[in-house]
Amino acid sequence: MHALRRRFPGAHLAYIVEPAAAPVVINNPHLDDVIIAPGVRGVRGLLGDLALGRRLRAARYDLAIDFHGGPRASLLTWLSGAPVRIGYEVVGRSWLYTRRIARPRELGRRHSVENQWDLIEPLGIAPPDRSADPMEMAADPRAGAAVAERLARAGVTAADALVVIHVSAGNPFRRWPSAHFVDLVSELAAGDPRRRILITSGPSERDSAGRVIGGDSGPLHVAATTRVPIVGLYGPTLPARSAPWRDEGCVTESVDAGELPCRPCDQRVCVPGDFRCLTSIPPAQVVAAAIRVLRPRT
Topology of domain 141-294, per CATH? Predict the structure, then answer.
């Protein structure tokens, strides 16, 4: 969004998003409008998308870019009626775009941000630069106040070294074993009496539930919008593709599962059957990485 705003400073930039992801972009300073597409499926959903398409067409947008590439996003891009519609070459849907960009069929060692940047380079936008265009997400003041109050109730002060550990992921391919997290927390807590450990999780791992340590999941990339030191764990995904996209001057450690013939994978079927890519990362390796990022910087 920042790159598009630089290229078209006087343009009206609108972003379509489903409700669950809306908080990520709702306060983005480069956007003029955030359009929330209801997450309704079936016939009602199709009728809603057709109505949204009429709204987009009435707005007479000059350009539509489909960063998602899914069927619904492709349809809305076409329904917008924009004379220029950019999207990936997708079998059966490429005709919906006026400009088609090739996308590798296999997972590679190229960052996802760079893959998406291919869609805007034809507009005369320079190649991506982590320092010029890091991940951005405006903080919600109400959420910040709620977190500050909760930390205060727990006795966490500004003098403490806060370590946030996110223990869940949306699928089993990205879940480090709970016992490993227990070892990690024990080692970090014993290593410095000033450390306060905060465990977070999503609904999928509710029962297992500053600095940040976590798997390649949403909270890792939320943390990437700050300059806080980060440790990320990578099993089925590759750091080259999925590591936090931010200024390289920020402290970031990627703990990788190493070379395995099944990495990276599409996270649909574990061929060996034991999720060895992530479960084989020992707690000691993660503890060492965490201690490195927790050291004071000179």
Answer: Rossmann fold (3.40.50)
- CA–CA separation, 140 vs 26, rounded Å? 9
Q: Let me know if domain 2-123 sits in CATH 3.40.50.2000.
A: yes
Cα 246 from Cα 254, distance rounded (Å): 13
Could you report the per-residue pLDDT of 113-143, keeping only the tens digit for each? 999 999 999 999 999 999 999 999 888 889 8
C-alpha closest to that of 164 among 173, 145, 151: 151
Contact indicator for 174, 235 with CB cutoff of 8 Å: yes
**pLDDT digits 0-9 by tens, 83-104:** 999 999 988 899 999 999 998 7
* Residues whose CB is less than 8 angstroms from the CB of residue 271 and which lie 6 or more positions away in sequence, other chains included: 262, 265
Whether 209 has a pLDDT exceeding 60, the answer reads: no
The 3-state secondary structure of 26-66, one letter per residue: CCCCCCCEEEECCCCCHHHHHHHHHHHHHHHHHHCCCEEEC
Give the domain ranges of the chain.
2-123, 141-294
pTM assigned to the model: 0.79
CB atoms within 10 A of CB 233: 28
Distance between CA atoms of residues 260 and 153, nearest Å: 45
Q: Please give the backbone phi and psi of residue 183, each rounded to the nearest 5 degrees, phi first.
A: -60, -40
* Amino acid type, 174: R
Q: What's the rounded Cα separation, in Å, for the pair 161 and 295? A: 11
Query: Is the separation of the CB atoms in 115 and 95 below 8 Å?
Result: no
Handedness of CA 267, 259, 114, 224 (dihedral sign): positive
* Distance, C-alpha 132 to centroid of its chain: 18
